[in-house]
Write a structure and sequence with these properties.
Blueprint: H1 15-30, H2 44-68, E1 94-98, H3 107-119, E2 125-129, H4 143-149, E3 154-158, H5 161-165, H6 171-176, H7 185-201, E4 203-206, E5 210-212, E6 221-224, E7 230-237, H8 242-253, H9 265-276, E8 287-289, E9 294-297, H10 299-302, E10 328-330, H11 333-338, H12 353-361, H13 363-368
Parallel strand pairs: 1-2, 1-4, 2-3, 6-9
Antiparallel strand pairs: 4-7, 5-10, 6-7, 8-9
Helix pairs in contact: 1-2, 3-4, 7-8, 8-9
């Protein structure tokens, strides 16, 4: 658009040309040099013309700059907050967490990860380990690691708590907590890690005693553990989901590390009940939390054998049909660890239900059981 024309019908000049020509005319009218080199005094009208020309020239420059600036790639508008960045550079579809510094993995942990790798073919399955170092990637000293490294879609990654919790509601909690005073520190850490990792990266989190049977078709999900509680041993979510944000905030606000399950199943149960306003609560049905777009699977989907019947895994049985409606099963290894009087251990040839699961879902791990260290 041009604000100045030379004359009616003449060819329009550019904005800058018109202003320069107009300014030259006004300067000549304002005064000419005398023989002594001094200028004659400008009239009031001529001075006003000069000021107007300069003002128009400045306006034209600003207008041109504003028109160009939005198309410039040199500067970008930043959001008014700092969102949590993805943890690490690897994209993980299914993730497990080892919260101790040990590199030792039990046969059950190896089977859990192998079964996930077989179930989610073409997906990246990651094991985050606090004791892992890339310098150890060529080690063959640990049988489980040898098995997992042979699976093309399994990735072993270091677990750095400071990086995981950075820019999340859990950051301040981790900086202030004293692990030596915590009763269930490995388990509380595990709860915190799953919320933060899924918040940052999204995907499916699984405990290291969960064995997979078939792919879970939903992105945002949990599962009924019993008639009164929801469990997070298997938990799926898209990244930066508001439900996970609510879980992390509740984790800090209502923290009770000395109470078993308070930061895990009990937290998930109370947050869902608060956000979802359920009109029914039936562990025999899949339940949808509409406000959070989360599905709570009926108990048979992820916990077909309830925790109080955990010994069934070690009883003689080849009846895998009990898992026909299941995406995975939780083996409840912690219950076994607590039972000092009747601690069970699967052995090759014991024909237990767990051995039959190993044979079908983690053949590489099962083959290594003879030489497991």
């Amino acid at each position: 658009m041009h604000w100045i024309r030379r004359s009616i019908g003449s060819k329009p000049a550019s904005c800058h040309e018109e202003l320069e020509n107009e300014a030259s005319v006004r300067l000549l009218e304002a005064g000419t040099p005398t023989a002594s080199g001094q200028y004659t005094k400008c009239s009031y009208q001529s001075c006003m013309y000069c000021l107007l020309s300069v003002a128009l020239l400045f306006f034209c420059f600003v207008f041109s700059w504003v028109q160009y600036f939005p198309r410039s790639n040199h500067l970008k508008i930043q959001p008014p907050y700092k969102a949590a960045e993805r943890y690490g550079t690897d994209s993980c579809d299914v993730l497990f967490v080892q919260t101790t510094d040990s590199l030792h993995l039990s046969p059950l942990t190896s089977c859990a990860i192998e079964s996930a790798a077989r179930t989610y073919k073409g997906k990246r399955v990651c094991l985050y380990m606090k004791g892992w170092d890339e310098k150890l990637k060529n080690t063959t000293a640990v049988s489980a690691l040898d098995v997992l490294k042979s699976l093309s879609n399994v990735k072993l990654l270091p677990l750095n708590p400071v990086s995981v919790f950075r820019d999340t509601p859990l950051e301040q909690w981790y900086q202030s907590v004293n692990p030596e005073q915590e009763t269930y520190w490995p388990h509380v850490q595990s709860d915190a890690f799953r919320y933060a990792l899924l918040w940052q990266n999204g995907g499916i989190y699984m405990d290291t005693d969960v064995i997979s049977f078939k792919p879970i078709p939903e992105a945002n999900f949990l599962g009924f553990e019993s008639t009164t509680a929801i469990n997070g041993a298997v938990l799926g979510s898209k990244d930066h989901h508001p439900f996970l944000d609510a879980c992390m905030k509740d984790f800090v606000t209502n923290y009770e590390g000395s109470a078993w399950g308070h930061q895990g199943p009990l937290l998930l149960t109370r947050v869902l009940q608060r956000l979802c306003n359920f009109t029914e609560w039936d562990p025999d049905k899949d339940l949808m939390c509409t406000s959070q777009k989360f599905i709570i699977f009926k108990s048979s989907r992820l916990y077909p054998i309830p925790y109080y019947n955990w010994k069934l895994f070690y009883n003689t049985s080849d009846n895998l049909s009990i898992f026909s409606d299941s995406y995975a099963t939780h083996v409840w290894n912690q219950m076994n660890q607590w039972d000092e009087n009747e601690k069970r251990r699967m052995k090759v040839g014991d024909r237990s239900l767990l051995e039959n699961i190993f044979k079908h879902r983690c053949q590489l791990t099962y083959a290594k059981l003879y030489t497991w260290s």
